[in-house]
Amino acid sequence: MMKLAAALLVLAVAGTVAAFVVVYSGNRDTAPDALRSCLQDLGLPRIIGNDALGPAAPDLRAGRLVAREQVALKGGGQATLLVPADRAYTLVAVTRHPSPPAVVRHRVAAHPESLVELAEARTAPLQRAVRACVREQAA
Questions:
Q1: DSSP string spanning 18-61?
Q2: Is the same domain home to 10 and 45?
Q3: Domain range for residue 7?
Q4: Measured distance CA(81)–CA(119) in Å, rounded
Q5: pLDDT tens digits, residue range 116-126?
Q6: Do 63 and 126 lie in a common domain?
Q7: How far apart are CA 139 and CA 137, in angstroms?
Q8: Fewest Cβ atoms nearer than 10 Å: which of 78, 102, 119, 133?
Q9: Does 126 lie in the same domain as 106?
Q10: How far apart are CA 46 and CA 129, in angstroms?
Q11: Do residue 54 and residue 88 come from a single domain?
């Protein structure tokens, strides 16, 4: 009888752990799939580290990027479009929760890997396409 009770307890614990893993993995910081897919379809790779920031790195350090637009997303989270004064490129930064522009800029500069999604568009047509992707996913 004790062996049966122990086996049932082990199964209950395993089921609880499995349920927790499923719920937790579903709640991780992930960009809405449609937005991520749209950015990938445009050929924009995800920026994962500071080395991949390219021309944005010195602009971030000098505080020259401004939030052109912040959009609440359907799947939760927020997309922030950051641009320099000359609008030479657009960074799209996706965060899990709404954040002020200064916080988004800091996260991009200090820990780009902590963002849900971060991509850069360097040409005017790609910048327009990125804005269209973001607006399609607006809440």
A1: HHHHHHHHHTSS---HHHHHHHHHTT-PPP-SGGGGTTHHHHHH
A2: no
A3: 1-29
A4: 10
A5: 889 999 999 99
A6: yes
A7: 6
A8: 102
A9: yes
A10: 16
A11: yes
